[in-house]
Amino acid sequence: MAFTYTTNVPDVFGNKKNISGTYTSAGGSTGGDIVTGFSVVQSFSNTSATASPSTVATISAGTITITTTANQTGVWAATGY
């Protein structure tokens, strides 16, 4: 049971950054944490590659915890500073 994610090189504009990547819930995993490195996450979006959507459970400082159906993949993006 593993949740993994990738992070692309951030785009910087002013004092904010936009980062994005992919995520995978494998082996029956139903979500996990995406650590953005931000102090504050101003926006977050994700799109699943499967029929069931994933949900954002919590955002605490720069860590986003999402809940997915088992074995789901998708893409995510966050903006913050």
Topology:
Blueprint: E1 2-5, E2 11-13, E3 16-26, E4 31-35, E5 41-48, E6 55-60, E7 63-67, E8 73-80
Antiparallel strand pairs: 1-3, 2-3, 3-8, 4-7, 5-8, 6-7
Write up what this structure looks like.
- This protein is mainly beta and 81 residues long.
- Helix content is 0%, strand content 62%.
- It has strands at residues 2-5, 11-13, 16-26, 31-35, 41-48, 55-60, 63-67, 73-80.
- Strand 6 and strand 7 form a beta hairpin.
- The chain is elongated and about 40 Å long.
Domain count: 1
Biggest sheet record: 5 strands, antiparallel
Low-pLDDT parts are none
Count of individual beta strands: 8
- Tell me the distance between the termini: 31 Å
**Content-based structural category:** mainly beta
Task: Return Rg in Å.
Answer: 12 Å
Total helical segments: 0
Please estimate the helix content. Answer: under 10%
Secondary-structure element string: EEEEEEEE
Strand content: over 45%
Mean pLDDT: 89
Q: Tell me, what's the shape?
A: elongated
Notable characteristics:
mainly beta, 8 strands, 0% helix, elongated
Summarize the structure.
The protein has 81 residues and is mainly beta. It is built from no helices and 8 strands. Strands 1, 2, 3, 5 and 8 form a 5-stranded antiparallel sheet that branches. Strands 4-7-6 form a 3-stranded antiparallel sheet, with no helix packed on it.
